[in-house]
Write a structure and sequence with these properties.
heterodimer; A: alpha/beta; Rossmann fold; Arc Repressor Mutant, subunit A; 2 domains; five-stranded parallel beta sheet; four-stranded antiparallel beta sheet; 8 helices; 12 strands; 43% helix; elongated; B: alpha+beta; Beta-Lactamase; Helix Hairpins; Heat Shock Protein 90; 3 domains; five-stranded antiparallel beta sheet; 58% helix
């Protein structure tokens, strides 16, 4: 599995990213200042670095220059500085992406995966049982045969896969797939779950969790 | 119409009116004088001639003889032979105003009665066949018969002279006007050159080049205007710079403040989103909730700071008498918990000062907390109070910590000013805002 170094001095945020990434199956290490980060990067091998700009001792820009000298490791900037000039500076120095605070962790993870794909460190397709999901082309194959899903069905499947083995709350599931503008309709969600189960033959795997919602068991 | 056009037109009009009036007056005067001269001369001659004619005519027409036109003609023919060319132009009429003789061509074209009836020693001027004649009339009573004689003197030369003068005047006037137009134009251009410079510069300033100044050294009104303009431009430049600085400070404040807001917000949103999507185990839930709590607390203290700042900037400063040791003791008592392992050393000179106790309290506490965050090597902060000359009192908060970077020193009094933590130690990150203006430091 991919190993990610989180360089962020706000412990709350650092922890949050770590929790979320570990749930996804990434290995994470956290470091709270620039100097130590340089030491870690020298001694260990990582697949990606999340880098805050405003760091104690050595700032993110300096660290990025240093990282780019010693390795080809992808770097995503993580910062509250959201002025265009800061973004341009970061990207010019060779950062692969730039995420500004406040961010949603989902977005951060999507960006991490996009960067990793670019470096061929992650496959475009994910396999669960006999189902292959291509998140870039948004296609699903079951036993090598393509299954056609509606966009919402695909989003729902993606959400379940991203949070596999966790029971997900119905309301939040609905909101993440349909957006915050729609009023929660349990029947819509239930219907889509049923369609997924039927189309992909996941009747036993997408479980109904009492009083909570659904869970994809892997 | 451009100013120079107006000016040139106006002056030229004035000059030409005055010039032509005066010239006309002089010519007229000259002309009248010449006429007067001529008339005097002619009157004298007239007397001579009259006398001559009289004496001659008597030779022919004896007393008692009937005077007929034929006799007069006879006389005149003799006269013609006698005087020949010396005789001036003249004409003779009988009492019925019939012409007896005339050596003036076309004399019939004028109304002769007026001339014959005019008073003695007066004259009329008539133009006959392009010649101006000065006409005198007189009469004799010869044997009870009235004979009129009209003497005519050619005064065309005077008229010619007048006309010649007039045309000369016209010619010189045109030259004078053309020359003066050119001179006035050049002079006016020279005069208004600074105005066009001012105009250009004004346009530049208006388009945002506030550094632009005019360089006009003259001592006249325009020079003064230029000076005033420069003063105005200077003022505008200063004001603009001031405004720009204010905008920058405001931006920096907003940036600093939103940065402080964003970090806890990211954490709060992240953890709540985690909790409301997934059913997490007890341990993770607890952890997330704790983070949410602490980050919310951070937001709360931030909002308190902001509110304090806003209320401080609104209120008037209340000046009261303060005993310095009371103030410091109170502050230190409150702060000793927060300052933790930092020791406070005090060297306070006793004094009573005038100032706003609340503001001073905030300032000293703020400085103490900053001192702590500066991570002093000897874990010590010194509070020093000393009387200065000219009735001032100085309170110093001294620490041997990281210090504020030089380039930030003069901005620490701005609201919520924050030294970028990546440029220095993390512990230095703090609100350097001291919540009040510098003037409060100097309180008598």
């Amino acid at each position: 599995m991919n190993k990610i170094l989180i360089v962020e001095d706000e412990i709350a945020i650092s922890d949050l990213i770590k929790i979320e990434l570990e749930m996804k199956g990434y290995k994470c290490e956290t470091v709270y200042d620039g100097e130590k980060a340089a030491d870690y990067l020298e001694s260990k091998k990582y697949d990606l670095v999340l880098l805050d700009i405003m760091l104690p001792n050595v700032d993110g820009y300096e660290l990025l220059k240093y990282i780019k000298q010693i390795s080809e490791i992808p770097v995503i900037f993580l910062t509250a500085k959201n002025q265009t000039i800061d973004k341009i500076n970061g990207l010019n120095l060779g950062a692969d992406d730039y995420v500004t605070k406040p961010f949603e962790v989902r977005e951060l993870i999507a960006r991490i995966e996009a960067v990793l794909r670019r470096y061929n460190k992650v496959n475009e397709t994910q396999k669960i049982y006999n189902i292959e999901v291509n998140v870039v082309a948004r296609t699903v194959k079951k036993d090598g045969k393509e299954v056609s899903l509606t966009p919402k069905e695909f989003d729902l499947l993606e959400l379940l896969i991203q949070n596999k083995n966790f029971a997900l709350y119905r309301e939040t599931m609905f909101e993440k797939v349909w957006g915050e503008d729609f009023e929660f309709e349990t029947r819509t969600l239930d219907l889509h779950i049923q369609r997924l189960r039927k189309k992909l033959d996941l009747k036993d795997k997408i479980k109904t969790v009492y009083k909570i919602g659904y869970m994809l068991e892997v | 119409m451009k100013l120079w056009k107006k000016f040139v037109l106006f002056t030229i009009t004035i000059i030409s009116v005055i010039l032509s009036c005066s010239r006309y007056y002089i010519v007229k005067k000259n002309f009248l004088y010449s006429i007067e001269n001529a008339s005097n001369q002619n009157t004298n001659q007239l007397i001579l001639e009259k006398y001559m004619i009289e004496t001659n005519i008597v030779k022919i027409i004896q007393e008692g003889d009937e005077v007929t036109d034929e006799k007069i003609l006879e006389y005149l023919s003799s006269l013609h032979t006698n005087f020949d060319n010396e005789l001036q132009s003249f004409a003779i009429y009988n009492n019925e105003y019939d012409k007896i003789y005339s050596n003036i061509d076309d004399i019939d074209s004028i109304d002769i009665k007026i001339i014959l009836n005019q008073e003695k020693n007066t004259y009329c001027i008539r133009k006959i066949e392009n010649i101006y004649y000065m006409l005198f009339s007189s009469y004799w009573n010869i044997n009870n018969k009235i004979i009129y004689i009209v003497n005519a003197y050619d005064v065309s030369a005077i008229y010619e002279e007048k006309n010649r003068q007039m045309s000369e005047i016209l010619f010189t006037d045109i030259i004078v006007l053309v020359l003066s137009s050119i001179i006035i134009f050049i002079f006016f251009k020279y005069l208004t050159k600074p105005i066009s410079i001012l105009n250009k510069t004004s346009k530049k300033v208006a388009s945002g080049e506030f550094k632009e100044r005019v360089n006009i050294q003259s001592q006249d009104e325009i020079g003064e205007l230029a000076k005033s303009f420069n003063i105005m431009a200077e003022q505008i430049e200063n004001k603009i710079n001031e405004l720009n600085l204010q905008v920058k400070q405001k931006n920096d404040f907003i940036n600093g403040f939103t940065h402080e807001l964003k970090t806890p917000m990211t954490a709060i949103i992240g953890y709540t989103d985690l909790l409301r999507l997934k059913k997490c185990d007890e341990e993770l839930t607890q952890k997330a909730i704790n983070y949410i709590y602490s980050e919310t607390k951070r937001l709360e203290s931030l909002s308190f700071k902001l509110m304090k700042l806003m209320s401080l900037s609104k209120d008037e400063i209340k000046m009261n008498r303060i005993i310095i040791t009371d103030l410091i003791d109170k502050v230190v008592k409150v702060e000793s918990d927060i300052l933790d392992n930092i020791k406070i050393e005090m060297y306070i000179e006793e004094a009573a000062i005038k100032g706003d106790i609340e503001l001073l309290d905030v300032v000293i506490r703020n400085l103490l907390e900053n001192a702590k965050k500066a991570n002093p090597k000897d874990n010590k902060v010194i509070i020093k109070g000393e009387k200065l000359s000219n009735k001032k009192y100085r309170i110093s908060i001294i620490d041997k910590g990281n210090g504020i970077p030089k380039e930030h020193i003069n901005r620490v009094t701005e609201d919520f000013y924050m030294v970028d933590k990546s440029r220095s130690n993390k512990n230095n990150r703090n609100w350097y805002r001291t919540f009040f203006s510098k003037k409060n430091f100097i309180i008598s």
